[in-house]
Every structure is written in structure tokens, then in C-alpha cells.
Amino acid sequence: MGRGPMASDTDDFYTSGPYHLTSIDWTNSHHRTSVVSSLVNGVYTLERDRLLSIKKRYRYKLGLRHAPKSLAEPWWEFFNFELMYTLTDDDGSIYGAVFEYKSYSVYQNSPHVKVPHYVMAFRGTVLKKRTWEFDLKLDLQCIFNTLHQGGRSRHAVQAVRSMVDKHSQKDVWLAGHSLGAALVLLAGKTMTSVGFFLESYIFNPPISSIPLEQLPGGHYLKDVFQTAKSVVKGTIAMTLTHLLQGQEEYNTKTASWIPNLYVNPKDPICAGYIDYFRHRDFMSEIGAGQIERFGARNSVRSLLVGIIRRSPSDLSKEPLHLLLSADMTVNKNEPTKSTTAHALHQWWEKDTAMRENWESCCIRPYHDGQLTLEFYSVLILLIIQVAADGNVEFHHRLKLFVNLVLNFLLKFY
């Protein structure tokens, strides 16, 4: 979950960075995106420089005097930012950094303009000898929705809290790519729960779902699978909720946090966000918004574990991808060898013709509704179509199962 196979080509700002932005217009969303993504890339390059400095010391002992120069500073200095301090993990790796915008005071009399005073930036996975182990552990935690249990996660959230405690929430921006984007989601949700809504830029965030759309017949499989999954999980959640005494109520504050989300449909790591929002709208339109909400917030595993261990507050954390609001940008350009679908540098694209293929989506909370006959009909048709292979016995059993589920659901409405 890092920058991709061409990461080394993006370390030099004056080769691959947005050096064409000699004057920053903070009212321009593309300028904001380019600057904050550059700061994130600066964190990647800081870690690259750290690893090279270790090699440099080793080379010096061997009598070899030359080593690659540091490349990190231009990624923030070009935009008049200053590095305040870095965030390091237990293995010594740099996973984040805090930058201060030195021209912030110029905009003090322009409250209508979004300008950061501080930007907290987080990198993604770096598959190098000295960093891969810690990063891959966090990648697995993203997959299993347990990122909140990691030491780096706790350290990052505490750093964000400290910054917000010292400064106002409008002064602090968050930005991250891939694994770093997951940290931003975790920190943003945590701060939102206590009433702080931080400006956030989330590039290629991971999502723990199967990229069905990229499989043969993926569009059809996706609709069937997601609808069935929502119904099953929603049913179990509503059935077992009364057993989970003290379970945290759904936090409506989340709807007030509107992060900037950047995804690429060809990137299997983040493409699931497109499917999630599309499916959420579909379920809402057919009157099944409440089932979708229950299903999205809970996994069967977390519900059952919560009952067994009687510790719902610790084990039923909200999945990172569950966002009620977001301003999502979808890059529909075809990936190339130099710009992969997961690459961070796609988001400071200077070619306006390429940016015309970016789609902007305004995601806002859906309205809950009662289950409708249309929902029942759609669900039945989807499942019956799957069984339309001539197997009468299988077809019959599916219909019995659907009737059982729907009759069960009707008891809740």
C-alpha cells in the first residue's frame, strides 16, 4: 500500500513534482490537492533519505565517500512550508511529519479562503528491508478492520489530538496516502467523535472488500454479493444488538465531517469506495437504508466476538470506509507504466486534458426509509437469477431461504 513500483522516480521534486505551481491559489481545489499530496510525498522521501543515511554511514566505514543526496526538502520548501518535526515508529522509521505554512499570516484577513496553518502528513507502505515488517502488519490490520489496535495508530491519533489541543481545528489539516490515508481516516473519525472536524485529504485509501468489479461478470456479481451481504449482516446486527448492552450508538456527528477522498477505479486497493457509495445509494433508493447502515457498521465476527467477550466498546469499532459524507474525486484515466492506478503523483497531474477525466462526486448522508416491496422484489430477483441454471432443487431451496429471511425482517418493521 505504498507509492507503487515507480516510487524511486518520484523522489526528485524537480523531475516529477508540481514545480509548475509557482503561485498557489488556495481557492483552487487542484492547487490544494497538489500541495498536500506533495507534502505526503515529502514524508515518503524523508523515509527514503533516512534509509540512505544509514547506508551512507555503512559506506563511510568502508571508505566510500559518496552517497545520494537528500531529496526531501523541496517537496515542502517549494510551497513555503517548514518541517516542524517527524513522527517515528518503534523501528525508527518515519511514517509522518508536521509541516507549518510560513505564509499563513497573509491570509488572516481572508476567513473565506481555506488555508492550512499546519499539515500533518502520513506516508503509505515502504517495502524496504528496515521498514517492511511494521508496515505490512498495519496493512493486515487495515484488511481486518483492526487498525485502531496498532501502536503507530495510537501514536498518530495522539499526535493529532495534541496539535488540535494547541491550535484551533481549522488550522490543522490531515493528509495521507494508502496506509497513511487509513491513519487519516482513523484520526479524522476519532476527532469527529469529540466534535472536531478536520480538513482532510485522503489519497487511495485501502478498503477491506473484494474487488468484484475487476472479475469477469464483476458488475453483476457485485450487485448480488453486496445486497446479500448487507441483508445478512444487517439482519444479524439488528437481531443481536439487544444482547450488546452498552453498544455505542450510531454517531451522527460523522455526517458533519467531509473529507476529500481520491480514488482510482483501476486500483484494487481503493476501488471499493466507489462500489460502497454506489451500493449505499442503491439500498437507500429501494428503502433499505437502515439495513445497509446496520450491515456496514458491523461484521458478523465483531458482533459474535462482542457477545462472547462482553466488550463491545473495544471490539466493535466503526469500519474506516464507512463515511456518511465525502467530496470524492475519481481518476478515470487509464493507468500507464509511469503512473499506476495507486500512484500518489497522479493527484498533482498538471495536464488539464487529463484532469478532465476526473469525476467529482458529492457524497452526503442518505435518508433512512422503511423496507419497501421494491426491495423485496429486487432481492428475490437477484438471487433467483443466480440460480437460473436449471438446477430445480437449488432454485427451490433459494426461494425458501429468501422467504425465511424476508419474513424474519418484517418483524423489525
Describe the protein's architecture and organization.
It is globular, with a radius of gyration of 23 Å. By secondary structure, it is α/β, with parallel strands linked by helices. The chain has an 8-stranded mixed sheet with strand order 1-2-3-4-5-6-7-8, with helices on both faces. α5 crosses α6 (179-193), α7 (218-240) crosses α13 and α8 packs antiparallel against α9. The relative contact order is 0.11. It is built from 14 helices and 8 strands. It is 44% helix and 12% strand. The longest helix has 33 residues, at 29-61. The protein has helices spanning 13-16, 29-61, 74-77, 132-143, 151-166, 179-193, 218-240, 272-285, 289-297, 300-309, 312-315, 352-355, 373-386, 392-410, and strands at 81-88, 94-101, 118-122, 172-177, 199-203, 260-263, 326-331, 358-363. β1 and β2 form a beta hairpin. This is GDSL esterase/lipase At4g10955. Residues 154-193 form the Fungal lipase-type domain. InterPro entries: AB_hydrolase_fold, Fungal_lipase-type. It comes from Camelina sativa. Keywords: Hydrolase.
Helix- and strand-based class?
alpha/beta
Shape: globular
Q: What's the mean pLDDT score?
A: 78
Question: Which percent band covers the strand fraction?
Answer: 5-15%
Low-confidence stretches: 236-250, 300-316
Q: Note the total helix count.
A: 14
For the biggest β-sheet, the strand order reads 1-2-3-4-5-6-7-8
Radius of gyration: 23 Å
Number of strands: 8
Report the helical percentage: 40-55%
Summarize the helix and strand pattern as letters. HHHEEEHHEHEHEHHHHEHEHH
- Outline the biggest β-sheet: 8 strands, mixed
Distance N to C terminus: 42 Å
